[in-house]
């Protein structure tokens, strides 16, 4: 746990505390399901809680309701080499998701883990190959008709030629 106190120029004191707890100790579920091929054990995800700036951080009984879930891509034994390369290229060496939407720390933990799962899923997605297609005859005709209309409109804007 790290604690920091600051004194503002007006003389008021504020303090913040950050606690880093392995996710496996605090969550009832044992793994984070990302997609069909990948399920991460919660021991690989670091959960940090701190005071929220929004709901939960401003009510009278202040709680550490902001949750930050982070996943170290390079240190994970759950990823194979191709998955690791894809996530590193698209999301970087550390994938982080933050939730401070709710007043409840437990609900924010669920949201942060869901957001982390979604980011990893997007980073792991293999884009489909584009199949080249020819334009249809009708689309070619529409394009040429539009060009003719545009040419005609510009021709009408020109000053008249004296012959």
Helix coverage percent: 25-40%
Question: Uncertain runs with pLDDT below 50, 5 residues or more?
Answer: none
Tally of DSSP helical segments: 4
Q: Give the structural class.
A: alpha+beta
What's the CATH architecture of the domain at 16-124? Answer: 2-Layer Sandwich
Radius of gyration, in angstroms, nearest whole number: 27 Å
Instruction: Supply the CATH class of the domain at 16-124.
Output: Alpha Beta
Shape: elongated
Please indicate the percent range of residues in DSSP E strands (runs of 2 or more).
25-35%
Number of strands: 7
CATH topology assignment of the domain at 16-124: Double Stranded RNA Binding Domain
* Overall average residue pLDDT: 83
Biggest pleated sheet: 5 strands, antiparallel
Order of helices and strands: EEHEEEEHEHH
Taking the alpha carbons of the first and last residues, their distance comes to: 89 Å
Strand arrangement within the widest β-sheet reads 1-2-5-6-7
Brief summary:
With 163 residues, this protein is α+β, with helices and mostly antiparallel strands.
Question: Which tags fit this structure?
Answer:
Double Stranded RNA Binding Domain; five-stranded antiparallel beta sheet; 34% helix; two-stranded antiparallel ribbon; single chain; 25% strand
